[in-house]
Design brief:
Elements lengths: L8 E6 L7 E6 L3 H10 L3 E2 L4 E4 L6 H14 L3 E4 L1 H8 L14 H19 L3 E8 L4 E7 L6 E5 L6 E6 L2 H12 L4 E2 L6 H11 L24 H12 L3 E7 L2 E6 L4 E6 L8 E8 L6 E8 L4 H12 L9 H7 L3 E4 L4 E4 L5 E5 L8 E5 L8 E5 L5 H13 L29
Parallel strand pairs: 1-5
Antiparallel strand pairs: 1-2, 2-4, 3-4, 6-7, 6-10, 7-8, 8-9, 11-12, 12-13, 13-14, 14-15, 15-20, 16-17, 17-18, 18-19, 19-20
Helix pairs in contact: 8-10, 9-10
């Protein structure tokens, strides 16, 4: 029996509310066949003509390319929206990935397994009996209805969840879980993480109620530089600040040198993607001295941060700006210490200030965006950067976000008029 012609078209685009999730819009006489193939590739229907791909590992662009290739091999036509194509072309890495020995393909294998576990739980194939917090992450014990690994211990959340141990007997698996985690054990599955809630909402096209244990934090719109803002800053720098001299040896690059001959700034006019370095700044110990420190800033870096850095180099303050820790503490940023680094996280999880005391090249990092694992912009500073400058950058970063909302003060008790005794309660 001959196959029906693959007469359908699929348009792939970024989801408007949750990047980098992808929406596939299908059309044509055999659109149902195309939708069946997309379902096998992880897309889920949200309307008669649209499907969504939303994953915990934020690898939707990568899997969309694979889906598009398979559809073309089957004879279906498709197109990829330019904004999605830009996401596909952007090379990114996970920030603070806990398995640094993994290469990019191995990281995808880990996260693909985590996605399968999440899908098994969401679709009822894996029933979670108990969960606990082991002090670092969430752990759980559950049972598959069928399969080789019938009863498993799980470790981690989101794209890092893995099967840590398998058991043949449910009683043994549960008893061992109680032994390992004791009083930390709670019945049933753990509350959904914020990312799990978002993914489930996108795939079902229905709101997911937030769990009381994971109250949603109101998020400010993450600050990112818009098109042309860096060019305008560069023009203003040379239009008003006479201490800088510029030249453009190549069409794509402008180089600026300060009158002191100790500071050099390079700007790449072709930087577009969020991982492209737009600014490279360095300070030297005298006109022909050694480089003291350097910094790189990517294309989406908010203009106030660049302005703060250049202003400091043009005219360092006479008084100390303090320590960045003090600045961020006053702005109610949340600190976290790890063996190799210390981080300060802004309220709403949109900006992070990070210190890696044993590193040389990237001793300090400031990055932000609506997804910190795929930062929309990054500022990297080497060892040797002045502490005053770090404090000023921290202050400028804190100013990018609105101050945290304060709880309203309780209404004052009504005042008793002078000379009138307060009425006493009468007991029965």
């Amino acid at each position: 029996m001959p196959y029906a012609p693959a007469d359908a078209h699929v348009h792939f685009a970024l989801h408007p509310d949750h990047h980098p999730a992808v929406i596939a819009t299908t059309s044509g006489p055999t659109a149902d066949a195309a939708r069946s193939h997309l379902h096998d590739l992880g897309f889920r229907s949200t309307s008669p003509t649209t499907m969504v791909l939303a994953r915990l590992d934020r690898e939707e662009p990568y899997y969309t390319v694979r889906a598009a290739e398979q559809l073309r091999q089957l004879g279906f036509t498709n197109e990829i929206d330019p904004a999605l194509q830009e996401e596909i072309d952007t090379k990114w890495t996970w920030a603070n990935y806990p398995m640094p020995w993994c290469d990019r393909d191995e990281i995808r294998e880990v996260s693909a397994e985590a996605q399968r576990i999440h899908n098994d739980i969401a679709e009822g194939r894996l029933i979670i009996h108990l969960h606990a917090d082991d002090g670092h992450t969430t752990v759980a014990v559950g049972s598959y209805a069928t399969g080789v690994r019938r009863h498993v211990h799980l470790h981690g959340e989101n794209h890092l969840r893995q099967v840590s141990t398998s058991y043949d007997d449910e009683t043994e698996a549960v008893a061992e879980f109680h032994r390992l985690y004791s009083v930390a054990v709670h019945p049933g599955p753990a509350p959904l993480t914020d990312l799990e809630q978002t993914v489930r909402r996108l795939l079902t096209a229905q709101p997911v109620a937030a769990n009381a244990d994971r109250a949603a934090v109101s998020r400010a719109e993450p600050p990112v530089a818009g098109p042309g803002e860096h060019e305008a800053l560069l023009k203003d720098l040379f239009g008003h600040e006479r201490q800088w001299e510029k030249y453009r040896p190549f069409d794509e690059t402008t180089i600026a040198s300060h009158d002191s001959l100790t500071v050099r700034v390079e700007f790449d006019h072709e930087a577009r993607h969020r991982t492209d370095i737009a600014w490279t700044i360095a300070e030297y110990d005298g006109p022909v001295g050694e480089r003291l420190w350097h910094a790189t800033l990517t294309a989406g870096t908010p203009v106030p941060l660049i302005h703060t850095l250049l202003q400091y180099l043009d005219a360092p303050p006479l008084t100390s700006a303090g320590h960045p820790d003090d600045v961020l503490h006053s702005a109610a940023w949340h600190p976290a210490s790890r063996p190799a680094r210390t981080t300060w996280e802004a309220p709403g999880r949109t900006i992070v200030f990070e210190s890696t005391p044993h590193a040389t090249a990237d001793r300090w990092m400031l990055y932000g965006g609506d997804d910190l694992d795929r930062a929309a912009w990054t500022v990297r500073l080497s060892a040797g950067v002045p502490e005053d400058l770090l404090a000023q950058l921290a202050s400028a970063a804190a100013d990018l976000l609105p101050p945290p909302a304060r709880k309203p003060l309780p209404a004052p008790a009504p005042r008793v008029p002078t000379g009138v005794p307060a009425q006493r309660a009468r007991g029965r």
